[in-house]
Amino acid sequence: MYMKTLITLIVVALIGLGAYVFFYTPDTEEYTPSVTEEQSTMEEDTDTMDRVVEVEKETETVIGTSVEGRDITAYHYGEGNTELLFVGGIHGGYSWNTSLVAYELMDYLEKESEVIPETVRVTVIPTLNPDGLATLLGSADRFSANDVPEGNTTAARFNANDVDLNRNFDCDWQETGKWQNTDVSGGSAPFSEPEAEALRAYIGDDAPDAVVVWYSAGGGVFASSCHNGVSEETLALTELYAEASGYTAYESFDFYTITGDMVNWLAKEGIPAVSVLLTTHTDTEWSRNKRGIDALFATYK
Question: Rounded distance, CA 76 to CA 110, Å?
Answer without folding.
Answer: 10
